[in-house]
Amino acid sequence: AKPTPPVVSGPGRRAEPGQSVSVTCTAGGFFPKDIGVKWLKDEAPISAQQPQITPGRTKSSYNVSSTVTMTLQRDDVRSQLVCEVQHPTLTAPLRGTYQLSKALRVPPSVCVVAEPPSPVEVNKTVNFTCHVKGFYPGDVAVTWLENGTEVKMENTSRLVETRQGLFELRSLVEVKATEEKNGSVFACRVVHDAQ
């Protein structure tokens, strides 16, 4: 009996570059017991743990499970894992795929730039720009704080995808430099991927 097409599943939660994740490939319903499982990352072979072969639902069938553990990198946002299952009943291997972006969280770098830089003349307008760079996935919430208190401001922000597949965002607010705002501190707060 031929094996079922392999199903590849990743971790339940995202991990950051430098952390390791496990990805598992399963297939079932095959006979005889001999089966081969190969892993590829972006078409290059990678090593995995010894496949676990267990009895299937019927007496004369088997299931296989193979797990690969790897350390994530920033550029894995574009990487794909392939699990190849080889069996005597198959003319060509069966393939299951997994996009590593599903397992990856890359936190942003954040900086605020004021234009013009301080000190500013009274009643002049100051533009504050919050640069949020190099993050994945693309869901991010930016709020502005004045002296630690959230301020509702008209802020224009746009999300762009970089060539590397990461995201960046600029959030801009305009503030009038009035007397009472002298000494005020403006900050932007970034919440990424509901963290």
Automatic annotation (TrEMBL):
Keywords: Disulfide bond, Glycoprotein. The gene is Sirpb1. Pfam families: C1-set. Gene3D superfamilies: Immunoglobulins (2.60.40.10). Residues 1-20 are annotated as: Disordered. Transmembrane segments: none annotated. Residues 5-101, 108-195 form the Ig-like domain. It comes from the Eukaryota. This is SIRB1 protein. InterPro entries: Ig-like_CS_Receptor (IPR051755), Ig-like_dom (IPR007110), Ig-like_dom_sf (IPR036179), Ig-like_fold (IPR013783), Ig/MHC_CS (IPR003006), Ig_C1-set (IPR003597).
